[in-house]
Amino acid sequence: MNATCTHTADGRVRDPSRRTGGPCRYREPAGLDLDEVMRRIGSGRPMTVPELLRAAAVLARHVASGRTDVLVARVRVAVALEELGA
Questions:
Q1: pTM of the model
Q2: What's the pLDDT at 33?
Q3: Which residue in 23, 34, 81, 84 has a CA-CA distance of 20 to 30 Å to 9?
């Protein structure tokens, strides 16, 4: 990712050097893996909208595994996003 990219309040990544101001290609931060996401969701601690969106992206990549805990976590994230109006 370009070093000039910045995160907006709604979790999108923008590259100020681009004329169109379009989003940069999104890349998961280092260390954000399925196990970490599952622990975070299972902890019961509140999550921000950007955290929930990143969790949803990680879980979406692993849904084909058919793991029940991944499917349950996706539902929890979807409900949390719905409650926050995102």
A1: 0.60
A2: 86
A3: 34
